What does this fold into?
Amino acid sequence: MARTPPRPPRDAAPAPRAGKAVTIRDVAKVAGVSPITVSRALNNPELVTPDTLERVRAVVARTGYVPNFLAGSLRSRRSRVIAAVFPQITNSMFADAIQAFTDRLRAEGYEVLLGLSSYEQREDELIAGILGRRPEGIYLTGINHSPQTRRRLIASHIPVVEAWDLTPTPIDMLVGFSHEKAGAAMARHLLAKGHRRIGLVWGKDPRAGVRRRGIEEALAEAGIDAVPASLEPPPGKFQFGREGFADLLRRGERVSAVACSSDPLAQGVVAEAQQRGLRIPEDLAVIGFGDFDFAAHTSPSLTTIAIEKARIGQLAAEALIARIEGREVAERVVDVGFRLVEREST
It folds into this structure.
């Protein structure tokens, strides 16, 4: 006669159910408490005893239970989710801003979902999907949006913060700096060093385009109208910097200085120039943009434009938190500025 198998201990994890996820009722049963107690332990732990809290958390860990935040948000009308749109994760220019933005929001109990717009190529599609999920706030990189996306964002009444650019007419709030002025500062620095034959190794993304306009206008004011350029696909890479400078030389451009739309491009220009026997800065001055981690530690060290990347992320997060919580935002448009850092390459 077959023996009846022993009953599992009360604190064992429930057996997997084909095609079904572990529910709050499963957790409650194993923990020996009610589903409402499990909910309180997960969402308001101060309302349950330490012993109960420890027991519920232990069962959650063993069972792999994932709370249904969607159901909770439908009841509370709060998703605690912020959507953030960045051009690419391969461009480390944005890494510090992403980290600071995420850290600040998580400290307030929000989760950040990242979306990649591929430098605005698929922003319309991405924003439509984001709005359908009703996040509590949206972070956008840049100010160049299609009229349709702009209308959708305004009509959604979801707090929006744009970053990395400046405009007097943001969708809602903005934290950034003037790319045009940054470009002009690069030009004026090279002019002050006595350079008149200046070339560009430049990225083709929209923000780099604004910086290019700034540098070319500043050079035109100094009587320099012909500015040879080698345009490279985003994001700027070391390889593209080398290829871009080689392209300028192949075309017979005799330049005494090269301005680059990013530090990786500038470092590529330095490497290509040195391989060809050119001295930096005696034979060729090079200036970059972004003040990447390596810029101060290369040989020669790299002159560049420094941006407070982490501050952009933090201020953007604080602006969203204020709006979500119904507080007034002191400044709808915040200009964090930039600074030119002169090093050995110029």
Remarks:
- The two ends are 91 Å apart (CA to CA).
- Residues 1-18 have pLDDT under 50 and may be disordered.
- Residues 206-221 form the longest helix (16 residues).
